[in-house]
Each structure stands twice: as C-alpha cells, then as structure tokens.
TrEMBL record:
This is Site-specific integrase. Keywords: DNA recombination. One of its GO terms (molecular function) is DNA binding. It comes from the Bacteria. One of its GO terms (biological process) is DNA recombination.
C-alpha cells in the first residue's frame, strides 16, 4: 500500500451510508455501509496511527503490509482474539489488504499453542550459525526480531528510568545473565538470558559497534548475530524446511510467554497475574486487564 492519502481520507471515501443496494452491487470496491462498521474501522485506524507515531513512522503513509502485520503482532500481545480479529478485518477493509489471521498471545498461552522447544531446535538446526543463535536467544528472552540488534550488557546501559520495573521480574528463572535491550519507542528494558547463551553471545562481541540498517532504520549493533527482517526471513524459511509451515519469528515471543506463565503459575500465580507480569518482561506497560474478558 503506497497511497499518500491519510487513513481518515480513505475511510471517508469508502463510507457509503444510505446508498441503494442496487448501486452497491455495481461498485466493486470494499465499502462501509453501516455506522457501526465505520465506528469499528475508525477505532482500528486510531490504534494503528498511535502505533505508527510510537514507532516513528509517518502518519500519512505509505502504509506498507509489513508494517500492518507488525502492528497486528504487537496488538496481539495485549488484546483478546475477538478484539484482534475485528481490528485486523477493519484495517484490511481500510487499506484494501487481505490480512491473514494473527493469534492472540493470551489465547495462545491459555490454549498451549505456542511454538514448542523441539520445533525451535529443529528450526535452528536448519539455519546458519548467526541466525540459529538469534533464534535461541529470541526464544529464551522473548525478543522481537529487531531487538536482536539492540542487545547490551547491563554494565553498559540501564533500564528506562521512567518505568516501574517489578522486583518479581524473571521470578523462577535461574542461572541467567541480565542484559538490556532497546525496544519499541526507545524503551530500554532488562531481559534475562540463559548463561550458556549469554556466553555464546559474548563470543560474537564486535571489537567496535557497527551501524546496521533494517527497512531504512539505523541501529547500533554490538554483537555479530542476525536480527530484523533478514532474521525473520531466515526463521520462516528454516521453519518451512523443518516443519512444513511457519508462524513467523514473532511466535518465539509467544513461546516465551507460554513458558513463563507456566513457571509463574507453578509458583502460585493466577493465570492473569502471571500474564500481567510477563507482559512487563516483554516490554508492555498498558494494562492487559482492560482488554481481557475471562470466560
């Protein structure tokens, strides 16, 4: 999608309230025919634009498919499936895109459908070394593909001071090294990485940081590992070879969440209390409870 029209202009152009059905049958465009549908579409528009602003993307486009998918993946980590599906359908209508379903993190964890460890290792075995290590790190620490570029030692950076980092973060994890990663909106958060992986990562420490460019954005990278779009493509290709299908590298965050929720529940946490703490570990500070309706 490369239109320069603002989303509001696009929405207004396809809102055809009160138009006779006979006329609509001759109009092959995707159109909005009810006030309720336009309201839902407007809500999806607002959420997508808020996300674009948080991520430094132009509000007036172009609106690329890869950006829409990334937004939905982030949105899936805080919202239940029905809300996520409505937002996906509304954005697809607005942008004339056919968007594949995305699984809600909450539903994935609750149903136990996240990527399993044997699947992770099968995928990593079909990747080159720097991609395989990134797969294992993303799975172990719950990282986004782009965050792999931003790993730093805890003696080099500190977490963002404006956030309240719970003392219970990483409760139940043992023999880990705490590192710092810069994520969405420049948020610096602590992550816990298994010591064996941290040691492998240090072996790939660069003598000097280098600037890597991913989809036009510059990142300072201290480690010679894969990240960003190239890593995501490597993961998907390896997953197709290993499993015959791929849910994408973002599924590693769901696997992390599922594992951590189980660990916390074993320590006595209720499901949603565990989800809430894990959301902090993933770098989210909006309240999940506002979006989740227990069944």
């Amino acid at each position: 999608m490369t239109k320069s029209n603002t989303l509001s202009e696009i929405r207004k152009s396809i809102a055809l309230h009160g138009v006779p059905k006979s006329t609509l049958k001759q109009d092959r465009r995707v159109v909005i025919t009810s006030v309720g549908t336009e309201r839902v579409t407007g809500q999806a528009e607002r959420r997508f634009l808020e996300w674009r602003e948080e991520n430094g993307l132009a509000l007036d486009g172009p609106y690329l498919r890869v950006e829409v998918v990334e937004f939905l993946q982030d949105y899936a980590e805080l919202h239940e499936q029905s809300n996520l599906d409505a937002t996906r359908i509304a954005l697809g209508r607005l942008l004339s895109m056919k968007l594949s379903p995305v699984a809600s993190l909450i539903e994935t964890v609750r149903q136990g459908r996240a990527t399993r460890w044997d699947e992770v290792t099968a995928i990593a075995a079909r990747q080159r070394e720097h991609n395989a290590l990134s797969t294992l790190i993303a799975n172990d620490a719950g990282l986004r593909a782009i965050e792999l570029f931003a790993l730093r030692r805890a003696d080099e950076q500190t977490p963002s001071a404006h956030c309240n980092w719970p003392a219970t973060m990483f409760l139940g994890r043992h023999d880990v090294v705490v590192m710092i990663v810069t994520g969405k909106g420049g948020l610096r958060r602590p992550i816990a990485l298994a010591r064996c992986l941290a040691e492998e990562l240090e072996k790939r420490r660069r003598p000097e940081p280098v600037i890597v460019v991913d989809r036009g954005v510059h990142y300072e990278s201290y480690y010679d590992i894969a990240g960003g779009q190239a890593f995501s493509q490597s993961f998907s290709d390896a997953s197709q070879r290993a499993l015959g299908a791929s849910t994408g590298a973002h599924g590693l965050r769901h696997a992390y969440a599922q594992r951590r929720v189980r660990e916390l529940m074993a320590l006595g946490y209720e499901f949603m209390a565990a989800i809430q703490l894990v959301s902090r570990e993933l770098g989210h500070f909006r309240p999940i409870f506002a979006y989740y309706q227990p069944r």
